[in-house]
Amino acid sequence: MLKIGLTGGIGSGKSTIAALFTRYSIPIIDADIIAHQLVKPGQPALVPLKQVFGQEIFNKDGSLNRDQLREVIFSDKEKKTQLEAILHPLIFQQMQSEFDKQTSPYSILCIPLLIETKMMSFVDRILVVDCPVETQIARVKQRDLLSTERILSIISSQVSRKTRLSYADDTIDNSNSPTQLAEQVKKLHNKYFLLNSVTI
Length: 200
Hints:
By secondary structure, the protein is α/β, with parallel strands linked by helices. It has helices at about 15-20, 30-40, 45-55, 65-75, 75-100, 135-145, 150-155, 160-165, 180-200; strands spanning about 1-5, 30, 105-110, 125-130, 170-175.
């Protein structure tokens, strides 16, 4: 079974593309969803987080204050590195565990920071969702209500569009119409299905 690593910059439309693949009953294993699960109350990831970041990133009920953690890591690169060192190994371990349970010809592993974490070898093919920076900014503003300055700081913390595309085995242009997007996904689905047949 093929592992397809779906990646792209913030606001590029990864969730939209993943949803289109589910039309073909293809499993989606999402790093962001797993990351959220790993920091729920009672999960072991909370212990090292508290040791590194202290009580300030937690609410009074013991749950993680995501907004406060976001503020900390975007104002301190060392803290961001420490967070990644705690969470990334756990995320990839859980993704592999979920992948091993699948029986479909291929699975989509949605990993926003695939290139940044240098985990390209974790997947068989890299599918990059691409769109202009202006489109990213507009989408994130509408979705997360962040300032342009904050959005640009997030974009600059990720690899450049050019670098990301240089690693792509396949690309989807997400500045097209919904119909064109669906057609791109359909073509890739057929391609991945055939590739899996060849590799068996």
